[in-house]
Write a structure and sequence with these properties.
This protein is an all-alpha fold. It has 3 helices and no strands. It holds the Pfam family ATP-grasp_5.
Length: about 50
């Protein structure tokens, strides 16, 4: 079983959106680009990338 799925099962929860997208990408299924922002400081940097 894939490590992402094993982790979610161990924690008795569904996959997070970011985990689901990572899993799909690993199996060659295209998904839109995304960034996970963890602080307000990261917003300015991401805005420049877009």
């Amino acid at each position: 079983m894939h490590r992402i799925i094993e982790k979610a099962k161990k924690e008795k929860r569904s996959l997070l959106e970011t985990e689901a997208k990572e899993l799909l990408r690993e199996y060659g299924i295209p998904v839109p680009d995304f960034k996970l922002i963890k602080s307000e400081d990261e917003i300015a940097g991401l805005a420049k990338e877009i």
